Amino acid sequence: MAKTILAVDDSGSLRQMVAFSLKAAGYDVVQAVDGQDGLNKAKEKTVDLVLTDQNMPIMDGLTLIKNLRELGSYQKVPILMLTTESSDEMKAKGKAAGANGWLVKPFDPKRLIEVVQKVIGS
Amino acid sequence: MEIKTLPIAELRKLLAAVSDHGKQHLIEVEADLLQTTFLLSEAIEKLSASFTAVHEAVCEQQQVLDALAAKYAIDKPVLEKLELFKSKIGDEVNVAVTSLQFQDLTSQLIARTIKRVNGLKDLLHEVESHSNEMDPNHEHEEIVKFLEEMSNSLQVGSHALSGGLRRSVGQKDMATGEIDLF
């Protein structure tokens, strides 16, 4: 059974590129348009990995991670940030919130798949 | 000759003109940026749809080629050439997916600029409002106080505007970003 990845980003084109890359590698992808939508979808169905943007309306990525980590079912689910932010300060905040990795946009699909496979397997 | 009062009417006229002209230009800037956003959104939508369709067609074509190669004896050099094409297509798809993320970066920059433009419009409006409070009958000290208040208000407003903006996008090109696993 294919593993499911929750892709959270307010940019439709970015979500489309993430979904395209992950689906081509055999993963199922659930998409969410902001942190709140991501949290709602994560509650509806437990996923194997969360890939989230930072700067989004309604709820940002760091807040989403903190909320997910408070849910029992998401305490050990890997969460990766995929964002334009690249400062060490923001990475430290992400790590403190519970992120397992930080990817700076734009992403290379091949490298994204390598990272995802390393974190959750094929 | 010592001048003890400021030419308030002229000063008010100048500040009103700065505010009006400034706001008018900023309205035009905002309209152009919104139009750019709209055009970029439509362009990326069509590009993404075409890209996906081309990719699907190429994948199907590859399946047909694989089936033909399994059914018929095809020369080794031809098969090697087909493999080479397959690999090249894969590499180009990767580059395209990376490049097609431009709209996410540019839309963030444009949104930040529009927010700054709107903030500047508010600041210019404030200049006009403050200048309206000045009256030619006011004493010199009162006028000085008005101008100081206006200056402080602009400084505070400008600071708040910068603080309220999202962080700027640092990417200067479409090169792939770094990856850190914690």
TrEMBL record, chain A:
Q: Where are the transmembrane segments?
A: none
UniProt xrefs under SMART domains: REC
User: What GO terms in the biological process aspect are recorded for it?
Assistant: phosphorelay signal transduction system
Q: Which UniProt keywords apply?
A: Phosphoprotein
Q: Which Pfam families match?
A: Response_reg
Species per Swiss-Prot/TrEMBL record: Methylotenera mobilis
Response regulatory domain sequence ranges: 4-120
Instruction: Name it.
Output: Response regulator
Question: What CDD domains does its record include?
Answer: REC_CheY4-like
SUPFAM superfamilies assigned to the protein according to its UniProt record, in alphabetical order: CheY-like
Q: Show the InterPro entries listed in the entry.
A: Bact_response_regulator, CheY-like_superfamily, Sig_transdc_resp-reg_receiver
Report the residues modified as 4-aspartylphosphate.
Answer: 53
